[in-house]
Amino acid sequence: MQSTSIGPLADAQLASRFNAVRLWELDDAEGWLDANAARVDVLTTSVRTGCDARMIARLPALRAICSWGVGFDTIDVAAATARGIGVSVTPDVLDDCVADMAWALMLATARRIPAADRYVNAGEWRRLGQFPLATRASGKRMGILGLGRIGRAIALRGEGFSMSVAYHGRKPQADAAYRFEPDLAALARWSDFLVVACPGGRQTRHLVNAQVLEALGPRGFLINIARGSVVDTAALIHSLDHGLLGGAGLDVIEGEPGVPDALRHRDNVVFTPHIGSATVETREAMEQLVVDNVQAWREQGRLLTPVNAAS
Length: 311
Ligand code: 8YV
Prior knowledge:
By secondary structure, the chain is α/β, with parallel strands linked by helices. It folds into two domains: 8-91 and 279-310, NAD(P)-binding Rossmann-like Domain (Rossmann fold, 3-Layer(aba) Sandwich); 95-271, 3-Layer(aba) Sandwich (Rossmann fold). Helix content is 38%, strand content 13%. The protein contains twelve helices and ten strands. The strands form two sheets. It has a seven-stranded parallel sheet, sandwiched between helices. It has a three-stranded parallel sheet with strand order 1-2-3. Helix 4 (77-82) links the parallel strand 2 (64-68) and strand 3 (86-88). Helix 1 (8-18) runs parallel beside helix 12 (280-300), helix 5 packs across helix 8 (149-160) and helix 9 packs parallel to helix 10. The longest helix is centred in the last third of the chain and has 21 residues, at 280-300. The structure holds 2-keto-D-gluconic acid (8YV). Residues 47-48, 69-71, 94, 274, 276-278 line the site of 2-keto-D-gluconic acid (8YV). 2-keto-D-gluconic acid is lined by residues 47-48, 69-71, 94, 274, 276-278.
């Protein structure tokens, strides 16, 4: 059963190879579930739609949830694990594109690319002359919150920009070549750019708070390509209003797709609409990985990219 569309490539394969029922296309989805829930053993979903404990409870034969997207903050993994239900997501294939987006935002905020573009298009280059000086990115210090696969891809790019890299997370990683900083505020104080690359959810909610933003300081930039929930948006607005933070590049924001008016139309805040993985190549690879997980489950009874140990 598909609770939502994964995209044309995956939807077509799930229908032709696995006879997947498209719940979102049914006129009476509730009625279909009443009659058929006991026969559903695999559910495909996406991180946007998720799968809550109620849906899991409604599907007594469920054995696997195959989700599109690397995040699983919208899936009740604990409820799934308690029932022995495997959950897969789509990691790895999006690391490079999300890391590229972190860099796009880092350069866009530091070098003020959107404001410079507006300057040229508004004819101000001719009228006012030289655009105001911006901030150098190369050779600076980058702090990464969350050195997972995406965090590592961001760190690797930092080496190409001659940056010093340090990171904060739940624990130091033995195989990482970068310095671990146990205190996030201390990492922010050291950093010119603080890049948020950790998972969302309750455990990381508002980790980037007023104290961390103040430590990053008036010449520091916050970049978030992870989840809006990790940053305390009220504290971010306060920091920007009072000149306590240099700027922010945000692919994600609490309450998205809505954006607080207080954050809009600032030259030192650059937004993108949650498009870290949104390239044709990466989105196709993410779709295919959902299908490949379903296939591996059907043919071998295992998931290729599980996030829990259920079997
Ligand atoms: C998606 C993501 O762009 O994979 C994830 O967890 O956040 C991104 O790849 C996003 O879910 C689109 O809404």
